[in-house]
Amino acid sequence: MILPIVGYGDPVLRKMAEDIPQDYPNLKETVANMYETMYNAYGVGLAAPQVGMAIRLFIVDTTPFSDDEDLSKEEQEQLNGFKKTFINAKMLKEEGEEWGFNEGCLSIPEVREDVYRNEQITIEYYDEDFKKHTEVYDGLRARVIQHEYDHIEGILFTDKISSLKKQLIKKKLQNIMEGKTRPDYKMKFASPKKGR
pTM, whole model, 2 decimals? Predict the structure, then answer.
C-alpha cells in the first residue's frame, strides 16, 4: 500500500524516533508499504518518520545510482541491488574526509542542495528478522544511510546547509508547508491552505 509522504513542517519529522520492539505489530507489512511508497516516488531511501511514524526504521535501495556514468565500475556494482532495511540503527562512527553531494528529500520536494558528509560510516542495526549487524559503508551507500539515519534523529538535510542557502530556499519550504508544492506522489502537508 502506498502511504502519503509527510511534508516539511510536520512535527513528526523533528521527533527523536523510538526503538521498535521485536513484537512490533505488522512490522513486515509496514516495511513492505514503505518500499512500495519509496519506489512509487522514485526515492533511494525512506525513513518511518516520513510516513508519519516516529520509530527507528528506515529503508534504502541505491540501485538507481548504479546507472551513473560518472561513477567507477566498482562503485556502480556496489550500488546495484544494495537494498536494506535498518531497524533500531545506531551510528557508531562517521569518519574520513567530508565530501559534498547534491541531496534531495521526498519530504522536501523541489529542493536540492549540496550537503557535506563523512566518507565512511560504521553502523549497527537489526534487519527485518531482528538479526543484529555491524557494518562499514563508504561513498554513496554511506551517504544514503546517513541521510535516512538523520531522519530517525529528527534531522533534515536542510539543517546541514549554510544560513545563506537556508534563506534562499525559505519560500520553497513555506510552499511545501502550505501544500502549494505538487510532486507526482502522494503527500500529507503540515498546514495546507484551505480552498486552493
Answer: 0.95
- Has 128 been annotated as catalytic? no
Average of per-residue pLDDT values in the chain? 95
Does residue 160 belong to any structural domain of this protein?
Answer: yes
3-state DSSP: the chain helix, strand, coil percent, rounded to 5?
Answer: 35, 30, 35
The C-alpha cell that represents 144 in the structure block: 544514503
Name the active-site residue from 75, 103, 113, 148.
148
Q: Can you give the pLDDT at residue 49?
A: 98
Q: What is the CATH number of the domain that holds 182?
A: 3.90.45.10
pLDDT, tens digit, 9 for 90 and up, residues 135-174:
999 999 999 999 999 999 999 999 999 999 999 999 999 9
133 is in an annotated binding site: no
User: Checking DSSP bridges between strand 45-47 and strand 5-6, what pairing results, if any?
Assistant: unpaired
For cell 525513513, the residue is 47
Overall number of domains in the chain: 1
151 annotated binding-site participant: yes
Q: Is 117 marked as binding a ligand?
A: no
Amino acid identity at 158: T
